Amino acid sequence: MTVLLTLFDLLLTLTLLGLAVVTLTSHEPRRAVILFIAFGLLLALVWARLRAPDLALAEAAIGAGLSGALMLAAARRASGRKTSAAQSRDAEDAP
Amino acid sequence: MNAFLLAVALVLMAGIAAGLIRVAIGPTPSDRMMAAQLMGTSGIGVILLLAPVLAVPALIDVALIFSLLAAVAVTAFTRRRVTNHGD
């Protein structure tokens, strides 16, 4: 039981650290946002493992869900503006 | 019984760790998003298994929020921006 729990903690920590490194070293915004969503998901798992269900709830709802969706929209808008600005001049007038 | 549940959670956790590879090297954003969804689904399973193991029944609500998160993330990902017409 204790060995299994230690193995679980070890696997969770290693996955979280690897995900953090990949997130921080990604260049493209969209890729970084998707990795950030996955990171918030795993962080909520860590809070659940630490017997803090309220923190896990807040992390999953706000940290990964709400800000993940907002940042996905922001990344798409930024990349769309960049490509359309290269194609046409009046892309800056679009709201 | 708890040890068995914990072993199943460990297997699901190994699945999450394997999904991390696809999230990291996925060629297209869709691949990354699908792998992130797989991680979310496995996370729901892990949390539901941790609830009886750690004797924290409130974790079931966290699993509910996890499923809501998956729907919101996919909706934000698949919404297409209308180019050249303004939105």
Shape of chain B: flat
- Could you estimate the helical fraction of the residues of chain A in percent? over 70%
Number of strands of chain A: 0
Low-confidence stretches of chain B: none
Largest sheet of chain A: none
How much strand content do the residues of chain B show?
A: under 5%
Quaternary status:
heterodimer
Order of helices and strands of chain A: HHH
Percent range for helical residues of chain B? over 70%
Radius of gyration of chain A: 18 Å
User: Structural class from helices and strands of chain B?
Assistant: mainly alpha
Q: How many strands appear in the DSSP assignment of chain B?
A: 0
Described by the principal axes of the CA atoms, the overall outline of chain A is elongated
List unreliable stretches of 5+ residues of chain A. none
Mean pLDDT of chain A: 83
- Gyration radius of chain B, to the nearest Å? 16 Å
Alpha-beta classification of chain A:
mainly alpha
Note the beta-strand portion of chain A: under 5%
**If you average the pLDDT of chain B, what whole number results?**
84
Write up this protein:
The complex is a heterodimer of chains A (95) and B (87). Chain A is an all-alpha fold. In chain A, 83% of the residues lie in helices and 0% in strands. Chain A has 3 helices and no strands. Chain A is elongated and about 55 Å long. The model of chain A has no long low-confidence stretch (mean pLDDT 83). Chain B is mainly α. Helix content of chain B is 80%, strand content 0%. Chain B has 3 helices and no strands. Chains A and B meet through helix 1, helix 2 and helix 3 of A and helix 1, helix 2 and helix 3 of B.
